[in-house]
């Protein structure tokens, strides 16, 4: 974790280790895309060496040095799909995780960093002469602009990102030189570097001060008047519209004039009514391959905006999409995609899932029903439910036998794997389940043969799942049958997503089936499955609310102990100490048995056009580590 | 005539207000709001969003306010030509709807014209030649076409073109022309793509119009005035087209008002299936994500179209048949 950056970059690929010296390519050797030659010759564009700066990042191509040219064809669905663009082409953090997500942090925009021993301040070094897509220099001032002028502003940032605050305190920045700055807090922020390398880290180098400052009253006294003249209600609305402040802001993909550090810049924006979003090469992109060719290889991007994922699926089958991992990569589509491979001239590439389980079964510990609450809080009740499931049969039915029976836990092979948490109560044992249920006062049966609550009233347990997410609803229907077999009157409640969220956010649910999250390197960033962390901790949402300061209920001491352990993790940047502390959190989670799991996570897949080169196989998929952005899409190329 | 039209328009105002209340109620009916749908969508794709961010979104959109207050804010804005902002696209609704509505109107109009162009002559011919081979053929076609749901036809067409010919027919333009300004080349590109949705949208309508025309005309053909004309030696074609056809057109004209909204609502599913840049997919998406101002604007406009359609058919009827105006 948080590996120190050496003078070289390492990339593990297929078991071999390739190294490339950052200065391998001499300045005069740099080559550029043919379409830029004429612009340079006519004097509209400076020479390639000048555009790249003194130390461009050297990317080792996955398979081979590529060739220039071509238009990448992708697909989006609906109006809220801006993060497709983000995950494919917008992952340019200061530091980046490697494609394998081994935990190594590589230099990216920053060429290096150092952390103070107490994890309170972090000094970054930028690349000499690096430029924005409009040719203006990228310097420490651009980062300082975000930290000092944007982040503290209540209008632009009404709620502050958790990873940039320590107990509510915002960071300060001191700029030593155009290429060196230090970000610091008065208290330790031990998770800062891994967050900076995650998808969130993109935030720090998103805004070009020279361009974006014109919308702020601090830099332009007419900003408010100009905003109103442009039709906005005030300067802040105009600023958001033109610069797209948050990493997930749709406005990030709107304004072709906004300078960017990404490999392609937008030409046809993602606005309502758009059916196609288009990008062109950023002539100032600051990465080269090992042969000194300026990246990206691919000239243009052309992304269709589809009304439905099924339409996109049809485009994939017709061979009109070069890479798809977001909307069609669903196990349900696998047979039809496999059948269409030859006609559509694509292949299916496996993606390793790194989440903690195929799904989570969460019994609501904060139930508002006075009769159900003590039953649900009884650990033996949850153990009985777990023993009542025939996991192997479920895995065979739902996942064609892929996956191994397991509880919700970090994955085996990571420093966070917890044997007890992963393997307890897995046996299919109906007798044990019945014995446990009898022992906790559920021994009386009603006329329908189902167990009654201790006060003699019928105990009906609703098991909710979202119908749109097919696999989870199918699973929930199976669980219900197993639980009825041990006398629990479980009922399957198919729900629309919105209703599901309304009910669970208000803690009105009994049991919900939902996806698991972090199970790999990312457990520190979102530990929602291992203790009440947020309103996404479905087993104890009220405690999660209490933790985030949004009301809720005060939890028992063991939860508070987990919270304090998590604070200690943030207080250190020693990976071993962090892992040891996290094990203590997991031990408590194992003792409490918060959630029931089914199977190890099932792998995903991507559809890759046969002409697309330099696409690695079997790399992890995720949001924190957003693929295919982490695969370095700038080194994808079209084979001749 | 002018008084008649003014009276009709005056009657439309309270109807329009009632529609606006209904539209607002409909978009408020599902549980939750845009922010909860947004959170659920984000969570589904494995992405994460801060609950503090959600709260600030709710505040910005004024979702915590009383429903009545929200309604009056909304309708007050519309009176000033401001339909509010789309939550999902973060753009003013007015920027979104007109382009899409324009494309919808274009497709609907083409469909309407073609429907009439085919159904009228076929209907007249099969009534005049009742129980002929042509009549049986057109009847068979009509029943088949009416019984086939539009969206199914769209799916089958998509399947055939994709699987057998290896081209997808989704959309109204080739990728190269999608973002290009209008030109002759783009117009031709539009024509080569637009026949699919027009065909899909038009078949069922054409079929039912053929049946209506045939039945109406058959009612008239045996009336004494037709016999009288024939006895006077009028040529058969002129006889049928001049008198009974005009009368038979009456029920036709009075349903123009229903054709407009039916085309647009039928277009919703078809254009979603065919991925057309029309109002349908945007409305469906807005409803799914509870993007209430956008959905409300579309529902309001569809309601307005029903009223306008009815007005148009009333005026047309009044022109073609003076008895209606007097009664």
TrEMBL record, chain A:
<protein>
    <submittedName>
        <fullName>ABC transporter substrate-binding protein</fullName>
    </submittedName>
</protein>
<dbReference type="InterPro" id="IPR039424">
    <property type="entry name" value="SBP_5"/>
</dbReference>
<dbReference type="GO" id="GO:1904680">
    <property type="term" value="F:peptide transmembrane transporter activity"/>
</dbReference>
<dbReference type="InterPro" id="IPR023765">
    <property type="entry name" value="SBP_5_CS"/>
</dbReference>
<comment type="similarity">
    <text>Belongs to the bacterial solute-binding protein 5 family.</text>
</comment>
<feature type="domain" description="Solute-binding protein family 5">
    <location>
        <begin position="104"/>
        <end position="522"/>
    </location>
</feature>
<dbReference type="GO" id="GO:0015833">
    <property type="term" value="P:peptide transport"/>
</dbReference>
<dbReference type="Pfam" id="PF00496">
    <property type="entry name" value="SBP_bac_5"/>
</dbReference>
<dbReference type="InterPro" id="IPR000914">
    <property type="entry name" value="SBP_5_dom"/>
</dbReference>
Automatic annotation (TrEMBL), chain B:
<keyword id="KW-1133">Transmembrane helix</keyword>
<keyword id="KW-0472">Membrane</keyword>
<keyword id="KW-0812">Transmembrane</keyword>
<feature type="transmembrane region" description="Helical">
    <location>
        <begin position="187"/>
        <end position="210"/>
    </location>
</feature>
<dbReference type="InterPro" id="IPR045621">
    <property type="entry name" value="BPD_transp_1_N"/>
</dbReference>
<comment type="similarity">
    <text>Belongs to the binding-protein-dependent transport system permease family.</text>
</comment>
<feature type="transmembrane region" description="Helical">
    <location>
        <begin position="105"/>
        <end position="128"/>
    </location>
</feature>
<dbReference type="GO" id="GO:0005886">
    <property type="term" value="C:plasma membrane"/>
</dbReference>
<feature type="transmembrane region" description="Helical">
    <location>
        <begin position="293"/>
        <end position="319"/>
    </location>
</feature>
<dbReference type="GO" id="GO:0055085">
    <property type="term" value="P:transmembrane transport"/>
</dbReference>
<keyword id="KW-0813">Transport</keyword>
<dbReference type="Pfam" id="PF00528">
    <property type="entry name" value="BPD_transp_1"/>
</dbReference>
<feature type="transmembrane region" description="Helical">
    <location>
        <begin position="247"/>
        <end position="273"/>
    </location>
</feature>
<feature type="transmembrane region" description="Helical">
    <location>
        <begin position="9"/>
        <end position="29"/>
    </location>
</feature>
<keyword id="KW-1003">Cell membrane</keyword>
<dbReference type="InterPro" id="IPR035906">
    <property type="entry name" value="MetI-like_sf"/>
</dbReference>
<protein>
    <submittedName>
        <fullName>ABC transporter permease</fullName>
    </submittedName>
</protein>
<dbReference type="InterPro" id="IPR000515">
    <property type="entry name" value="MetI-like"/>
</dbReference>
<feature type="domain" description="ABC transmembrane type-1">
    <location>
        <begin position="101"/>
        <end position="317"/>
    </location>
</feature>
<feature type="transmembrane region" description="Helical">
    <location>
        <begin position="140"/>
        <end position="167"/>
    </location>
</feature>
<dbReference type="Pfam" id="PF19300">
    <property type="entry name" value="BPD_transp_1_N"/>
</dbReference>
């Amino acid at each position: 974790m948080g590996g120190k950056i050496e003078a070289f970059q390492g990339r593990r690929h297929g078991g071999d280790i390739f190294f490339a010296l950052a200065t391998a390519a001499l300045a005069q050797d740099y080559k550029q895309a043919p379409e830029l030659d004429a612009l340079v010759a006519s004097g509209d564009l400076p020479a390639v060496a000048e555009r790249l700066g003194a130390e461009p990042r050297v990317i080792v191509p996955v398979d081979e040095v590529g060739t220039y040219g071509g238009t990448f064809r992708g697909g989006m669905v609906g109006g809220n799909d801006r993060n497709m663009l983000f995950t494919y082409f917008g992952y340019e953090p200061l530091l980046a995780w490697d494609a394998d997500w081994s935990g190594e942090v590589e230099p990216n925009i920053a060429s290096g960093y150092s952390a103070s021993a107490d994890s309170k301040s972090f000094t970054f070094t930028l690349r000499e002469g690096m430029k924005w897509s409009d040719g203006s220099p990228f310097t420490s001032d651009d980062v300082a602009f975000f930290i000092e002028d944007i982040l503290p502003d209540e209008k632009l940032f009404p709620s502050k990102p958790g990873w940039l605050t320590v107990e509510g305190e915002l960071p300060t920045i001191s700029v030593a030189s155009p290429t060196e700055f230090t970000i610091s807090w008065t208290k330790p922020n031990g998770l800062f570097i891994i967050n900076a390398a995650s998808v969130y880290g993109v935030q720090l180098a998103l805004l070009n001060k020279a361009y974006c400052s014109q919308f702020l009253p601090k830099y332009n006294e007419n900003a408010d008047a100009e905003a109103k003249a442009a039709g906005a209600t005030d300067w802040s609305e105009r600023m958001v519209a033109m610069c797209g402040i948050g990493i997930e802001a749709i406005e990030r993909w709107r304004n072709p004039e906004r300078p960017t550090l990404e490999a392609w810049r937008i030409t046809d924006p993602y606005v309502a009514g758009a059916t196609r979003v288009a990008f062109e090469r950023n002539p100032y992109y600051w990465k080269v391959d090992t042969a000194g060719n300026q990246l990206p290889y691919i000239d243009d991007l052309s992304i269709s905006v589809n009304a439905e994922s099924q339409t996109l699926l049809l485009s994939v089958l017709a061979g009109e999409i070069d890479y798809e991992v977001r909307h069609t990569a669903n196990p349900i589509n696998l047979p039809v995609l496999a059948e269409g491979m030859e006609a559509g001239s694509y292949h299916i590439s496996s993606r390793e899932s790194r989440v903690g389980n195929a799904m989570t079964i969460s019994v609501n510990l904060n139930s508002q029903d006075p009769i159900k609450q003590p039953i649900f809080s009884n650990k033996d009740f949850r153990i009985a439910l777990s023993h009542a499931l025939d996991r192997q049969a479920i895995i065979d039915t739902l996942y064609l036998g892929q996956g191994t029976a397991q509880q919700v836990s970090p994955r085996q092979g990571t420093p966070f794997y917890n044997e007890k948490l992963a393997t307890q109560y897995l046996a299919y044992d109906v007798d044990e389940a019945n014995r446990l249920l009898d022992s906790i006062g559920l021994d009386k049966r009603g006329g329908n043969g189902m167990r009654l609550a201790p006060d003699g009233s019928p105990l009906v347990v609703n098991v909710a799942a979202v119908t749109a997410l097919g696999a989870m609803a199918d699973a929930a229907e199976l669980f219900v049958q197993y639980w009825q077999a041990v006398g629990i009157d479980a009922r399957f409640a198919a729900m629309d997503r919105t209703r599901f969220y309304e009910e669970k956010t208000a803690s009105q649910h009994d049991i919900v089936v939902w996806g698991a999250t972090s199970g790999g390197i990312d457990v520190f960033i979102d530990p929602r499955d291992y203790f009440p962390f947020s309103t996404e901790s479905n087993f104890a949402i009220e405690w999660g609310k209490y933790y985030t300061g949004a009301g809720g209920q005060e939890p028992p001491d063991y939860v508070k102990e987990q919270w304090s352990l998590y604070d200690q993790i943030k207080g250190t940047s020693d990976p071993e100490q962090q892992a040891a502390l996290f094990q203590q959190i997991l031990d408590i989670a194992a003792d409490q048995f918060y959630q029931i799991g089914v199977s190890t996570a099932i792998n995903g897949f991507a559809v890759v056009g046969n002409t697309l080169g330099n696409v690695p196989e079997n790399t992890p998929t995720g949001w924190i580590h957003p693929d295919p952005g982490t695969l370095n899409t700038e080194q994808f190329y079209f084979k001749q | 005539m002018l008084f008649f039209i003014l009276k009709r328009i005056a009657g439309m105002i309270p109807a329009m207000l009632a529609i606006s209340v209904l539209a607002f109620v409909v978009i408020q009916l599902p549980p939750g709001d845009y922010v909860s749908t947004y959170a659920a969508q984000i969570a589904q794709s494995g992405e994460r969003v801060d609950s503090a961010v959600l709260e600030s979104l709710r505040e910005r959109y004024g979702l915590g306010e009383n429903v009545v207050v929200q309604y009056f804010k909304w309708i007050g804005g519309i009176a000033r030509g401001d339909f509010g902002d789309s939550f999902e696209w973060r753009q003013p609704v007015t920027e979104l709807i007109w382009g899409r509505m324009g494309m919808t109107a274009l497709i609907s109009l083409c469909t309407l014209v073609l429907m009439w162009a085919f159904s009228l002559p076929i209907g007249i011919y099969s009534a005049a030649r009742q129980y002929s081979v042509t009549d049986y053929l057109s009847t068979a076609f009509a029943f088949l076409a009416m019984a086939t749901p539009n969206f199914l036809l769209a799916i089958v067409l998509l399947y055939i073109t994709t699987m057998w010919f290896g081209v997808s027919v989704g959309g109204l333009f080739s990728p190269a022309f999608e973002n290009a300004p209008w030109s002759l080349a783009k117009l031709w590109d539009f024509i080569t793509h637009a026949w699919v949705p027009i065909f899909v949208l038009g078949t069922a309508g054409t079929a039912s119009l053929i049946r209506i025309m045939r039945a109406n005309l058959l009612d008239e053909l045996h009336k004494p005035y037709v016999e009288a004309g024939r006895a006077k030696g009028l040529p058969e074609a002129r006889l049928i087209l001049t008198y009974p056809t005009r009368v038979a057109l009456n029920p036709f004209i009075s349903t123009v008002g229903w054709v407009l909204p039916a085309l647009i609502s039928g277009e919703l599913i078809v254009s979603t299936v065919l991925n057309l840049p029309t109002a349908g997919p945007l409305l469906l998406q807005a409803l799914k994500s509870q993007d209430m101002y956008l959905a409300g604007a579309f529902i309001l406009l569809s309601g307005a179209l029903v009223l306008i359609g009815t007005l148009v058919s009333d005026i047309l009827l009044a022109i073609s048949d003076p008895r209606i105006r007097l009664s």
